């Protein structure tokens, strides 16, 4: 069973990101402050849930959280500052948007750039340990999936409705066949040597 938060003394926001490993689109991050007695059946690491489960949990989290926020860093910024820094920046932007300023931050992962004047702890696989990080993981994931699905309407050749910009073999083949869209991250290696396509080249 997941614990509510990493510590109990201060108002804590759980933070997570989605889209870090994608070839296209923004990286999204969410910050969530939950009530002390919060419990939501089925809430867990977003990667352990189905698309339908995440979509069902999202409005419940948004309704029951004390505060929540979602923020993005787009593909152009990612290319400029690299994806690790972009992930940190997206989380900073989400924290900044919260209607209540947290006194402590619990961050999914092993690295984070300190947010001014708020202490934090990095928790590896924190989205499977703490409800506030799990909630943040679901909001970041569902908001990003929604964004990529809508964006994909104008770029059907990449099938973003299905792959959401992640580096599936089909997505890589589509890039090789059609070239980069305006929303692809140009600093990412799009092609995959394992595809063994004779016309494949580094994009």
Automatic annotation (TrEMBL):
Assign the protein's first listed, main location to one coarse class. cytoplasm
Q: Where is the RNase H type-2 domain?
A: 10-200
The record's comment on cofactor binding reads: Manganese or magnesium. Binds 1 divalent metal ion per monomer in the absence of substrate. May bind a second metal ion after substrate binding.
Q: Which PROSITE patterns match?
A: RNASE_H_2
What are the annotated GO cellular component locations? cytoplasm; ribonuclease H2 complex
Binding residues for a divalent metal cation: 16-17, 108
Query: Which Gene Ontology molecular-function terms are recorded?
Result: manganese ion binding; RNA binding; RNA-DNA hybrid ribonuclease activity
NCBIfam families associated with the record: PRK00015.1-3 (NF000595)
Job description of the protein: Endonuclease that specifically degrades the RNA of RNA-DNA hybrids.
Can you say what this protein is called?
A: Ribonuclease HII
Species of provenance: Pedobacter planticolens
Give the gene name: rnhB
């Amino acid at each position: 069973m997941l614990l509510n938060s990493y510590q109990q003394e201060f108002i804590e926001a759980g933070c997570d990101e989605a889209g870090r490993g994608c070839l296209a689109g923004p990286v999204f991050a969410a910050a969530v402050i939950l009530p002390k007695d919060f419990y939501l059946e089925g809430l867990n690491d977003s990667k352990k849930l189905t698309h339908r489960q995440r979509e069902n949990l999202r409005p419940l989290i948004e309704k029951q959280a004390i505060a929540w926020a979602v923020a993005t860093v787009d593909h152009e910024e990612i290319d400029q500052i690299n994806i690790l820094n972009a992930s940190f920046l997206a989380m900073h932007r989400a924290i900044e948007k919260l209607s209540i300023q947290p006194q402590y931050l619990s961050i999914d992962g092993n690295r984070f750039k300190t947010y001014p004047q708020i202490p934090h702890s990095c928790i590896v696989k924190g989205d499977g340990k703490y409800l506030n990080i799990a909630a943040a993981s679901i909001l970041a994931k569902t908001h990003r999936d929604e964004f990529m699905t809508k964006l994909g309407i104008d770029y059907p050749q990449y099938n973003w409705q299905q792959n959401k910009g992640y580096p599936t073999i089909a997505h890589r083949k589509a890039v090789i066949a059609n070239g980069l869209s305006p929303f692809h991250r140009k600093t990412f290696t799009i092609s995959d040597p394992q595809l063994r396509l004779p016309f494949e080249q580094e994009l």
